[in-house]
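Example record

Each entry pairs one chain with its bound ligand, 5'-O-[(L-methionyl)-sulphamoyl]adenosine.
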Amino acid sequence: MKTFISTPIYYVNDIPHIGHAYTTLIGDMLKKYHQLLGDEVFFLTGTDEHGQKIEQSARTRGKTPKEYADTISLAFKNLWDSFGIDYDYFIRTTDDFHCHSVQVAFQKMYEKGDIYKGEYEGHYCVSCESFFTETQVIDGKCPDCGKDTTILREESYFFALSKYQEKLLAWYAACPDCILPAHKKNEVVRFVENGLNDLSITRTSFEWGIKLPASFNESKHVMYVWLDALLNYVSALGYGGDGERMDFWKQPIHIVGKDILRFHAVYWPAFLMSLGLDLPKHIYTHGWWTRDGKKMSKSIGNVIDPKEVAKAYGVEILRYFLMREVPFGQDGDFSEKALILRVNSDLSNDLGNLLNRLIGMSEKYFGGKISSANTPKYFQAELEALHTILAKLPLLMEQMQLSRYLEELWRAFVLANGAITKYEPWNLIKNNKHEECEAFLGLIANILGKASLCLYPIMPVSATKIADCLKIKISHQDYKHLVLDRALLKDFTIEKIDALFPKIDGFRLEVAPQPQAEPDKIPSKTPAPPKITPPIDTSETIEISDFTKLDIRIGTIMTACKIPKSDKLLKLQIDLGEGRYRQIVSGIAKYYAPEDLIGSQVCVLANLKPAKLMGEMSEGMILASKDEKGLSLLRATEVKSNGSKVS
Ligand code: MSP
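Structure tokens for the complex follow.
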């Protein structure tokens, strides 16, 4: 299948920062994922170089707009090259073929009866390159960025956007996933339902833009920068020119930040309808990054330079952190401390250590030879748990729930680490259970191998290193065979490699000085904690010896299913490191789907008297907390050995 994926094209009035890197890394990730699925992908990125904002920025630097654009465009391209971004084309809106393509599109919309001449009167925000009516501006300021708007009154050509209101609403209704996440789509639907004004698509008060087709004989007019910019997605495929790559324009996928959603989810589909071209399959909309809780701004000096982060930690870690830390669609905070925690806990402990242990044990016990021939005989339950986890990933990726995707994937590593604690392969060898130990290491190799294929889009270099170790090819064939068709690894000899993710023991980024709190704003005494309801009963206190009677342990949920005729209860098999699974019946069915629990670690009250619930024996209780937002299971912040005590 041919698949088209795009990032926004970046304005050349600013050097690349972490927000730009985020969008581009996600595009690259998505390309790699689609390649695993066997798709032929065209991944487009580039720079947006026309418009009043660029003209002004160039002038203040004493350069022509083109000279200025050349420098910044190159900075973007160089950054993506140094990050190993696998784009198929880097477009610049000053490319001749693009300018020609925009003129062809303008002509076509005009012939369709969607463009007419009039006069625009209203507000304009140069920073957002966006028009606003009197009722939309707030005290004369832009409702999107808060900067001053200017009042325009000029002759203009208009695109008949209002004609497309009903068609757009019909499209949103017919394609539930055309804009994701869903709450962003709701915002767009509400905006369109409120009514659309026709859109001014030419400007006359500056010069830095694409001219109208010669047949219009309008030397004063240049194209509105958003019409020019949005058309990059098809001009790069040859629209209005050789048209050679237009076969990629089937159900295209766009990645955009929330600030430019309206342009992509309202104007762009209307332009496409006017041109008779396919509408997007998905417009994935992400939130904004802040730094240590503050908006990034040049004046505070807290803008994160992605080059610096990559220099300090490597692109792989940057990719993992950005995609894991914040649910896609929400705003996120870039904190170096959080990044280090992610490396030390997720990458170093859960993943890197696991690979080291596999290499170490297989070398020691079997001269590096690994075989899965007997793995199903001894470890069928673990293999099933693994395949259940991996089967959830495609939908999470399609829905762009990236942090959930990684969270799920990490359950596979929790499963593997928990199994090592449980089966103690060193004791299997001591007790002459060679076949079982070999099958066990086969299990761990399968978990790591299959997981490395699923990790590849997010951490391509690290995943390839793991795959090389395990003699797997990162390819559509191996992905299909091992992940989708659930085959096991062929026998192989493991390759030794150095530790993948050494622990990080201190900050590596230079921190810009942060503004100090003003003395009179520091509270003079500790404020009283907020009131909590219901009140805590302190009339009957307990001794510590009472508490120690409770034997609370960490355990991993191995299987989970509903209990027939009960809408409250789930039946769980939990590994508490006892050499058998405990069955626990728990009243959490309203809050958790069984498949979401497999592989999770929970806290278990392990010495509760067994009891029968709905005819099922329950040997303990899992701990949870409930408030008005719902119920959450209590968990350790890091993976613990099954059976670890909670005190
Ligand atoms: N040129 C337009 C896009 C035209 S696409 C046909 C533009 N350029 S931009 O350089 O201002 O922004 C490009 C992208 O970077 C947007 O998706 C925007 O959301 C994203 N980001 C800019 N700052 C950001 C953060 N601080 N955090 C996350 N992304 C943000 O808009």
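The first strand starts at residue 2 and ends at 6.
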